[in-house]
Amino acid sequence: MRYGHFDESNKEYVVTRPDTPAPWCNYLGSVEYGAIISNNAAGYSFVKSGASGRIIRFRFNSASNDQPGRYIYLRDNSDGDYWSGSWQPVCKDLDTYGSECRHGTAYTVIKSQYRNIETSTAYFVPMDKYYEVWQLKIKNTGLSARELSLFGMVEFTNHDHYENDTVNLQYSQFISKTYFKGDHILQVINENGSEASSDVEGSCDVMGEPGCRFFGVAGAEVSAFDGERDAFLGAYRTYGNPKAVEKGKCSNTPAYNCNSCGALQIDLTLKPGEEREIVFLLGAGNEEVASQVINSYKAALSGGSDLAGLQLNELKTLWHSRLENLQISTPDRNFDNMVNMWNAYQCFITFLWSRAASFQYCGLRNGLGYRDTVQDIQGIIHLDCNLARERLSLMLSAQVSNGGGLPLVKFNHIPGKEVTPDESEYSKKTGQSFYRADDALWLFPTVMTYIKESGQWNFIDEVIPYADKGEASVYAHLKQAIQFNLDRQGSHGFPAGLFADWNDCLRLGTKGESMFVAFQLYYALSIFKDFAQRKDEPEDAAWAGSHMSRLDNAFENYAWEDDQYVRGFTEAGYTIGSKNNKEANIWLNPQTWSVISGAAGGEKARLALDQVYNKLNTKYGAMLFYPAFKEFGLPVARMILFNEGTKENAGIFSQPQGWLILAETMVGNGNRAYEYFNEINPAAMNEHAEIRYLEPYVHGQATEGVDTLNHGRSHVHWLTGTASTVMVSIVNGILGLQPQYEGININPCIPSSWSSFTIKKIFRGKLLDIQVDNSAGMEKGVKHLIVNGKTIAGCYVDYSELAERNSILVVMG
Ligand code: IFM
């Protein structure tokens, strides 16, 4: 069943049926003022943190998981019939109510049509602002005049902190008030003073400023208001039938010791064909700020200028120009939709918000996970190198001087001054007390990709502080990261798995060994060796090379079983992922990472990937391992806690699918890589949205495997490492765009049925207008390139060949 479609030219997904299987969301704003909104206008807003800077209340895990939100009610005063500008919360019968939601780049437009009244509401956060705009256009499309009342409504939190607001009502309800100020409702929290944030050292005795939020309107007079939620809704009612809307009159009740809200009533008459624009404004700020903001829209509306429209266009221009850095046209529209818009946009959203705010999490941990963030960077390097470099430098400054990464990098991270997991204070502050084995190893592909894409080789010599003490060049940081794992090994000479490797559920400890980390380490050594050679550091290169040889032998002697790699060894000597095991006897990640790392080539690579195809693949992607754990479990295999076929317990974890696609392209299997991509491509599931559940335009964290009752159902939308991993596998693997130090390889690995396709890529400021000719029906292999008329053998273009705009023909064969 389908609920919408892609509008490629506007870079939008259009939801045409509002009763989607789950709320289908979008992100608005910036890390300063962020917002999440569903296709039915549900969701929440926050300043800096979804957990501790919350403005709109949202009830996680409520029955429809889609309330409350940013609601605009409409009432026909001739007969009292009422509806909402988004289908929820009033939920008129879809036979009489028309609805459309357009999710675009940092904006969402929701339209309604009911009884000859059309509304269109654009929701967005203007660039660099601490407030959001709900730009409502309302039109009477009928033949008679209409007497209407509109009610804009938002439920405020009583406390900035989500938990206090949700479960500590004996406190939070008594610190919040609302005032009506003519054109807005002002909510004041802690008017008598507050305790400053507990993140600040010794803060509990410090008086802080009151916190203010406002909900106002420009373009119409307010005829009545409610600042108290229950006065607006009425007792024992829901958002679907508020008393004020039913009666046609707000009660002018401010909030005092109860739940605050902003509800503004506007009465208006619309002549036949008449259209009005009314702008609701919600944000953080006191009365002065509110008045400034609201007055700017009033002035624009009365002067006939379209301030909201201009701001919306500014956002579109910014986002579209970012996405323009890579655009493709292939025979597969669903593939193009993901590359050109949605996967790229998701990469930016995960990069910006990390794992902070969604309909599944609200960011309680207040920091950046090390591994997630370093991987997220990879997803945007090809689109915005500068942004990537800034975050990469931050993450290097969160590496401890012993080489490991801080598991959680606090939002107020201070390089050189942080405590580490070796000290109990770190655990008190972050709840994390152990190193993960993999964290700093993600730096290697990320640094390499950044340098090759940007051409900024000198980054390798940039001096960056460590998190705890001292400083070193990026090169030395990397060497230290390798040392961290060399210093922590088990009896086979593989790196210890510590508190976790990529798999949060695998607790191998200080002596159990992880093959994932072993392959990551091998890859890190090969990248470092290459850096050392370029820097003319032969001793370092030899050092890295000798560890690679040692690992090669260990892989051969202990990790390879006929046609597959094992997953690891416990401290007690049990082999995880051995084919002789009853459970979990074939794992996905060691097979793919053996190839990605370069440790397995030729026959071994082929056999390992064939095992995945034969034993783990399903029509919705490859399972993380199989069969699920039912017996072997704690303390090592914590995934046993999950139902079989779910998440890390034999589920189809989405992020590793990217590694699988990449590995297949590395061995030249374009058909199989594409098959795997199609299995997990959200856009390809648009017609079967009732099976997948999640938004058909974003990757989720995991899909249910074959053991569950709902094979194919996906969970945990938007904020997942899948975005970057799949993006890398497409850009680097399928499209074959592989920047090198002094140029670029263009070496696609595609389905043999694609006879041609085009790519437009901005590479170090130069346009590459690429046409791929695959009339030979290849999966991989480039005969020659024609670059601006000059024929070049192979797939490499040296930077010196490039002009500002380049026409490149890639002839496969
Ligand atoms: O790798 C992790 C990630 O850091 C958080 N989500 C789960 C993944 C797999 O365990």
Provide a brief overview of the structure.
Helix content is 29%, strand content 27%.
The name of the CATH topology of the largest domain is Glycosyltransferase
The spatial strand order of the largest sheet comes to: 1-2-8-9-10-11-20-17-14-13
Helix content: 25-40%
In CATH, the architecture of the largest domain is: Alpha/alpha barrel
CATH level-1 class of the largest domain: Mainly Alpha
Radius of gyration based on Cα positions? 28 Å
Task: Please indicate the percent range of residues in DSSP E strands (runs of 2 or more).
Answer: 25-35%
Organism: Ruminiclostridium hungatei
Keywords: Glycosyltransferase, Transferase
Protein name: N,N'-diacetylchitobiose phosphorylase
GO biological process, one term: carbohydrate metabolic process
List keywords for this structure.
single chain, 813 residues, alpha+beta, Beta-galactosidase, Chain A, domain 5, Glycosyltransferase, Maltose phosphorylase, domain 3, 3 domains, ten-stranded antiparallel beta sheet, six-stranded mixed beta sheet, 20 helices, 46 strands, 27% strand, binds 5-hydroxymethyl-3,4-dihydroxypiperidine, carbohydrate binding
